[in-house]
Amino acid sequence: MKACLLLAFLFLYSCFQAPAASHEAAGLSHNFYGKSCPCAEDTVRSITWAHVSKNSALPAKFLRMQFHDCFVRGCDASILLNSTANSKAEKDAAPNLSLSGFDVIDEVKSKLEETCPGVVSCADIIALAARDAVSFQYKKPMWDVLTGRRDGRVSLLSEANANIPSPLSNFSTLLQNFSSKGLGLEDLVVLSGAHTIGVGHCNLFSKRLYNFTGKGDADPSLDPTYAAFLRKQCKGPSDNATVVAMDPLTPLFFDNRYFASVQQHRGLFQSDAALLTDAESQRVVKEMLKGPHKFFAHFAHSIKKMGSVGVLTGNAGEIRKKCYVVNS
Q1: CB count, 10 Å around CB of 49?
Q2: pLDDT per position in the chain (328 positions), as tens?
Q3: d(CA 53, CA 205)
Q4: 219 close to 265: Cβ distance less than 8 angstroms
Q5: DSSP classification of residue 169
Q6: How far is CA 276 from CA 133, 246, 259, in A?
Q7: Class of domain 32-163 as given by CATH
């Protein structure tokens, strides 16, 4: 017991005594906070795991938070900023209204400001929390997260609406959107695999059930049995309250079963079904079905690429004291 207390004391001491970060790194790196805040990644993981153990919806929420952050102004935590009297922020854009987990990010930030004030960025907290939330299921890191991001100072609702891919998009639109962020076709398909966890609101796919071509018909590419199941779940075309699991096979497990659903024409969104409308995309879908470890490896590669989109490093941006407001 004494040894444990001593180790705990030394751990906390190292956090409090760590020198301030130089912020002169040219880019992202492994263990960026190794000297400036050695407890940073452990703090993110411990707080994230504590919340995920009580709320199984958080892994999907954090993945979506990172995705939506990186697609608007790059991975700069602009998704966390609150609207002001003069400007509506990304957080209040329609695609982000169902996001949650902001309280967990704030808790992590508050703890890190106690131990390493002004060192760890909110952008890095998002990236680490997304990885750690998903990893809770496996009790080991599912992908590497490079750190060293800094926080942006601008967040605009209009940019969120313009940049976040829509679940109603066709394949060419999705590919163009991803390409504009430096991500390719394989990244598009593999990162769509994040839909293996989480839920979708009925109004985001109801057109496929009730009025696909404007004639009161269903999407012919949607499995009829699955369409009938969805109609029983949803109260009607405008139902924006009811949610349905995006992966009907294993909705709470981060695995490769989403791709089985897509191949069976049981992808929930039009954007899921779109993955079967391109030959190369179809090939990647089949490749991801060769085993969960293949998917995990490809997902690790693609989310690492996404996590570096438009990052602020070095002296750019700032390290916010509170994630929901820029420094004064």
Answers
A1: 15
A2: 333 333 333 334 444 443 333 333 348 999 999 999 999 999 999 999 999 999 999 999 999 999 999 999 999 999 999 999 999 999 999 999 999 999 999 999 999 999 999 999 999 999 999 999 999 999 999 999 999 999 999 999 999 999 999 999 999 999 999 999 999 999 999 999 999 999 999 999 999 999 999 988 999 999 999 999 999 999 888 999 999 999 988 999 999 999 999 999 999 999 999 999 999 999 999 999 999 999 999 999 999 999 999 999 999 999 999 999 999 9
A3: 30
A4: no
A5: -
A6: 29, 17, 10
A7: mainly alpha
Residue 261 contacts residue 251 (beta carbons within 8 Å): no
CA distances from 119 to 19, 98, 123 (A): 9, 30, 12
Who contacts 233 (Cβ-Cβ below 8 Å, separation ≥6)? 202, 242, 244
Q: pTM value?
A: 0.91
What is the residue extent of each domain of the chain? 32-163, 171-306
DSSP annotation string for 2-66 = HHHHHHHHHHHHHHHHPPPP----SS-BTTTTTTT-TTHHHHHHHHHHHHHTT-TTHHHHHHHHH
Q: Which residues of 2-20 are buried (b: 16+ CB within 10 A; e: fewer)?
A: eeeeeeeeeeeeebeebee
Q: Dihedral sign, CA of 3, 8, 10, 11? A: positive
Residues designated catalytic: 68
Q: How far apart are CA 198 and CA 269, in angstroms?
A: 13
The position carrying tokens 């405008």 is: 238
Give the span between the Cα atoms of 190 and 127, in whole angstroms. Answer: 18
Considering only the top CATH level, what class is 171-306?
A: mainly alpha
